[in-house]
Design brief:
The chain is of the alpha+beta class and about 400 residues long. The protein folds into two domains: about 280 residues, no CATH class; about 80 residues, no CATH class. The protein is built from 15 helices and 14 strands. Strands 2-4-3-6-7-5 form a six-stranded antiparallel sheet. A five-stranded mixed sheet has the order 10-11-12-13-14. A hairpin with a 2-residue loop joins strand 11 and strand 12. Helix 6 runs antiparallel to helix 9, helix 7 crosses helix 9 and helix 8 crosses helix 9. It is globular and about 65 Å long. The two termini are about 35 Å apart. Pfam families: AlkZ-like (PF06224). This is Winged helix DNA-binding domain-containing protein.
Amino acid sequence: MGSDDRHSSGPASTLSAAPRDRAGGKITNRALNRALLERQLLTRRSDRTALAAVEQLAGMQAQAPQAPYVGLWSRLQNFHPDHLGALMTGREVVRMAMMRSTVHLITAADALSMRPLFQDFLARGLRATGWAPGVTDEDLAKVASVGREFLDERPRTNPQIRAHLAEYWPDHDPTFLTLAVRNLLPCVQVPPRGLWGASGQPTLTTTQAWLGRPEDPEPSPEWLVHRYLAAYGPATVQDMQAWSGLTRLGEVFGRLRPSLRTYSAEDGRELFDVPDGPLPDPDTPVPVRFLPEYDNCLRSHADRARVIPEDARAGLASKNDSPRPTFLVDGHVRGTWKLERSRTRAALVLTPFRSLSKRHAAELTSEAERLLEFVAPTTGDRDVRLTTSD
């Protein structure tokens, strides 16, 4: 169901012989763009499995339940929604609060290894809400214990969790207590939530109950740095902190410095990278690509200039601060898209931020037609419309 551009799972044939010593010298913004696209599987569709792709990306933001499907369609050859659905029902991938305290789709193995690294961050975020100033640490420990026992029995909806906790703490805000369970415990959202075309409220259980395995007792922040750089590097310490929500990562990078490559950005910032991180030729041609809302390709750096040009930032703003689905032209965000759908008709509305060349407009329209076939395969009347930004 992907486009007919040629793809593979290996490195691009246009990878340059960039400096490979530990101090890699200066690197341009365009080179950073191509490195990001290569690692994000956006230079050409990959023949990897959906599971391998989710692993390579170190998870996919999934607040919008259908977003990972579009994200994988843009990255993989012949991707079908059932491929990801089978991974969810087979418990090979899970949906849970992770980076930045947002819901992510992540492999089961990564859930057990990564989630413990975010425990302190999620607990601090709970305190930062200020919803329940009278709740003590001892209270929260009891909430976590009661919540774990309740969720280990079987998956529960948020209303069920609220009602159960209210029996123990009738004087506390039940919404806060439910959030406490979500942040203090490794909770996964079980299907049908997240399945293609399915609906339903979040239903939670613990990773232990769902996966039948405990979390990693010795999670490694150094390992997490390597995973981040493999998916988003070269990058700064601040970039990884923006992706993860974690702080004080400079100490971890410091310990890893002897084993990492370093580069200097155009503005002088120090960038780190894994030793074998691919660096495509900056002039590598890349195809038009569609990204769903919340795609981590656009949300994983403190400085997003490598993929979001200055003149595109205003067009990405929305009234409720909710990110819009976007499309990339020459590897950079050049507009937004939205699906308009009824029972008998589906339209993909494309809004470029500035005029496109005839070639790029034709490529964009062609790729949009393929995307429309993917998201609305049974709709007979399908249409792609190019509009102008307000």
